[in-house]
Amino acid sequence: MAGLSIWHVLIFAIVVILLFGTAKLKNLGKDVGGAVKDFKKSIRDEDAEAAQLNEPRTLEHQNSNTSNSTVKH
């Protein structure tokens, strides 16, 4: 049989736990989870920024931006 059976997976899991310990595996899981979360957040931010850049600009929108950017003395 070329695939892994449940016994192979269990033996592998036991060896990994014995080698690294549960504390290191727990920290590794937190680190990987945080990295995935940051990656997803950056992808969402880039998508939102790209969508904002692709929006058509109207004259009203441009006029409101120029009136807000003028400095009053």
Automatic annotation (TrEMBL):
<feature type="region of interest" description="Disordered">
    <location>
        <begin position="50"/>
        <end position="73"/>
    </location>
</feature>
<dbReference type="GO" id="GO:0033281">
    <property type="term" value="C:TAT protein transport complex"/>
</dbReference>
<comment type="subunit">
    <text>The Tat system comprises two distinct complexes: a TatABC complex, containing multiple copies of TatA, TatB and TatC subunits, and a separate TatA complex, containing only TatA subunits. Substrates initially bind to the TatABC complex, which probably triggers association of the separate TatA complex to form the active translocon.</text>
</comment>
<keyword id="KW-0813">Transport</keyword>
<dbReference type="InterPro" id="IPR006312">
    <property type="entry name" value="TatA/E"/>
</dbReference>
<feature type="transmembrane region" description="Helical">
    <location>
        <begin position="6"/>
        <end position="23"/>
    </location>
</feature>
<dbReference type="GO" id="GO:0043953">
    <property type="term" value="P:protein transport by the Tat complex"/>
</dbReference>
<dbReference type="GO" id="GO:0008320">
    <property type="term" value="F:protein transmembrane transporter activity"/>
</dbReference>
<protein>
    <recommendedName>
        <fullName>Sec-independent protein translocase protein TatA</fullName>
    </recommendedName>
</protein>
<comment type="function">
    <text>Part of the twin-arginine translocation (Tat) system that transports large folded proteins containing a characteristic twin-arginine motif in their signal peptide across membranes. TatA could form the protein-conducting channel of the Tat system.</text>
</comment>
<keyword id="KW-1133">Transmembrane helix</keyword>
<dbReference type="InterPro" id="IPR003369">
    <property type="entry name" value="TatA/B/E"/>
</dbReference>
<comment type="similarity">
    <text>Belongs to the TatA/E family.</text>
</comment>
<keyword id="KW-0653">Protein transport</keyword>
<dbReference type="Pfam" id="PF02416">
    <property type="entry name" value="TatA_B_E"/>
</dbReference>
<keyword id="KW-1003">Cell membrane</keyword>
<feature type="compositionally biased region" description="Polar residues">
    <location>
        <begin position="61"/>
        <end position="73"/>
    </location>
</feature>
<keyword id="KW-0472">Membrane</keyword>
<keyword id="KW-0812">Transmembrane</keyword>
<keyword id="KW-0811">Translocation</keyword>
